[in-house]
Amino acid sequence: MEGTLTHKILSRKAGRAVSPGEIIVVDVDLAYAHDGTAPLAIKVMEESRTLMKVADPEKVALVIDHASPPPTVAAATVHRQMREFARRFGVKLFDVGEGICHQVIPESGLVKPGMVVLGADSHTVTLGAFTAFATGVGSTDIAVAFATGKTWLKVPDTVKVELQGTLEEPLMGKDVILKLIGEVTASGLTYKAVEFVGEGVRTISVASRMTISNMTVEAGAKAGIFPTDGKLISWYEERFGYSPKPIQPEDNASYEEELNLNLSNLEPQVAAPPNVDNVHPVSEVEGVEVDQVFIGSCTNGRFEDFLMAAKILKRGRVRQGVRCVAIPASRRVYIDLIRSGIAEMLANAGCVLAHSTCGPCIGAHLGLLAEGEVAVSTTNRNFTGRMGHKDSKVYLVSPATAAASAITGRLTDPREFIGGG
Amino acid sequence: MGVVRISVLKFAGRAWVFGDNISTDHIISGKYKFGSISTLEGMLPHLFEEVKPGFHEKVREGDVVVAGRNFGMGSSREHAPALLKMAGVRAIIAKSFARIFYRNAINLGLPPIEATLIPEVTEEGDTIEVSLIEGKVCNVDKDLCENFRPFPNEILKVIAEGGIVAYIKNHGGLPWGTG
Q1: Per the CB < 8 Å rule, is B35 touching A77?
Q2: Of A44, A53, A113, A173, whose Cβ has the fewest other Cβ atoms within 10 Å?
Q3: B4 pLDDT higher than 60
Q4: What's the CATH number of domain B10-171, 3.40.47.10, 3.20.19.10, 3.50.50.60, 3.40.50.720?
């Protein structure tokens, strides 16, 4: 693994050259939890006097995003408990409406290249788009990280994914990661750190990189990391007037496994129920009738996602009998949608535009499915019953495919409306 | 803890058998975290409710779960291993585990054991014997044993003491030293 991004980040943190399989104890640069996992973490801390402390409040954040604003009294109670915890220990709290953790954390400038980040959510891997070693853990792990500022990690094997060619409209990061998961299966990258390299990387936006990193966990990965290139440096400069020190893999970096993916001949992809690795080109599954379209979540709730949806929905409107729910991943995205006129376009096209929350992705609120209903969704999991009734179905797609399907009321290849040829 | 531990490192239990890709959603659906129930006790009746209806009524203290590949995939929700432990499950023997579940299980003192043969041959209700120190798991009814790579000592200590929180309480720090 020498010369890989993972090796560089973890070796620097450990203060020596690390190798796969060894257990290291490292300082955690940032640890966060949300309203689904923080309650159990707080309970763990309260039950142990040794752990009822926060090592460094600057490195801890709580985010209310899973059931927000609270749809139930139980959720409201949990949120109050999180506010009390944040006040008591002086840690950052992103309250109702500010956004989904994996979106608001980078938007707030809290993650930088080279960091080790733990989140009590499996999709913490999203932050790999910022050249951070970011991984999801459970509530007890996060409690220990909050209290001690440290964690133990088993150094993972590294896998190189060489991206060749160019990603062109209406193809998006979502199609790239679905294709990869289909190839390697839902357990194909278990315990491994995946690194995306190659000429194709520069054709992928930071938002789409977040989508790609986000879903590496659906193949079991421990991290999904992009190098710091010009695009990422500009991202930091535009928002924070700050240029991060780039971290690149060495040319001769040694990976335990290497995979190739050509972006130029990629087709729009869909993960059909009930597993994330049940992936097909949309053209093969086209025609499935749709009851609900959801555009949003930590996977696909960013500005470019709604811009793409609006471009397609401009060419039609949401079909009668289909409900189209659009939920930005943060308040900042929400405001950008209003300022740019996209919010109005989506509303005009018949979408329901809600405040920022994880919402229907986890079957919490704002668009659940009845028995037998079908959703085409830009989210990350299509497990049985995930978004509602146990006999409802979820097809995972890009925002482009979701918008095209909203217009026709059937699962539809977005190239019918835009790009392609 | 309240319960007398006969031996947490060597034990026998009755098997509950599951297939491949059992997700944390299958173990406990995410919707229960945000519904009208939010306590572990309240979620317990919904354990495995779609894949093994009635599980929570029939499971007994000391039973084990035997499963296929990628057990515990998906969400990081610790409710999944916590509920299994609360229901009395003493160990999980699977062909492989999703990594967050694996970590969570160890942190809670619920040993996740990787084996290949035992999940192939085991039928519901078979008696499974486990020795964590030897790294050996046997199906008594099928008269078949299999070795697995024993846990490192630090992890064995965490399991023996009932999880990482109990360990920290007892020793004031992580088993790997916190520098």
Answers
A1: no
A2: A53
A3: no
A4: 3.20.19.10
